[in-house]
Amino acid sequence: MRVLKTLFDRFTLALLAVMLAATVLPCEGAGAVVFEILTSLAIGLLFFLHGARLSPQDVRSGAGHWRLHALVFFCTFVMFPLIGFALKPLVSPWLGAELYLGLLYLCALPATVQSAIAFTSLARGNVPAAICSAAASSLLGIFLTPLLVYLLIGVDGANMGLDAVLKIVFQLLVPFVLGQLARRWIAGWVEKHRGWLKVVDQGAILLVVYTAFSEATVYGLWHSVPWQRLALLAVVCCMLLALVLWLTHALAKHLGFNVEDRITILFAGSKKSMATGVPMAQILFSASAVGAIILPLMLFHQIQLMVCAMLAPHFARRGDRVRAEG
């Protein structure tokens, strides 16, 4: 029951509803222009709030654990992309070029912030280190993800010119920095309204998804991606997550990290951020390609939440098991 609740939470149902709305009633013409403007404003607000939420004290408290952070960054920005690239001969013929590009894009994204920290806390891992790693990964991803996209996909597959770089700076980085600068005045308000701000986060993502899938529908996305290919994509995402979970845990154990640190590495190094990935795809890829590009990310995001919701309580009960055996 808990797994079903995680899989079919309100946000997941909202995503499905937005995809359906974009398929049946896509925005076109002048309406599409209005939604593009609203989407740009929503993305800026999203990253402003990310900056306003990030406490420098939390970052400093976990910043000294450099070996842990190095391994998390390796898993996020090196291991993941290498796996995605290695999967090309196996999955590209079955998924098709567009969905495989989406899979590569997924592998190039930074880790999540909120869910990585939440699952680490639930599993009784090293929470300060999780906060530092996840926040740094999200910030570094603004620079590293476009670079990885260029290396993995090439300039022909993505918009990697000066215009895209400037959009990333002004739509993502500048609002984030402004949010950090505004913390001294709005930190208390942000903390008090954390629940309401989560709605703003999710609303921005839903707006981007509607705009992206509207454009994709107009360009015939659902004619080129049959349901059999979507089912296969879900299987590939499950296999990718299982492989990454095993590798992150095995590497952390082999390198001698304690249990709390291994939990942090597992949850921070195996997750990919939809909050960063969906808005950035809007900048890096052509409007007609964004819908197919973010499909793997949306599937992977839900699968990782479902699996981690089962893993976290398992790790949290480790002390009870030890006492029972003693």
From TrEMBL:
Keywords: Membrane, Transmembrane, Transmembrane helix. InterPro entries: Na+/solute_symporter_sf, Put_Na-Bile_cotransptr. GO terms for cellular component: plasma membrane. Signal peptide: none annotated. It comes from the Bacteria. It holds the Pfam family SBF_like. The chain crosses the membrane at residues 37-56, 68-87, 99-119, 131-153, 203-224, 230-252, 273-293. This is Bile acid:sodium symporter.
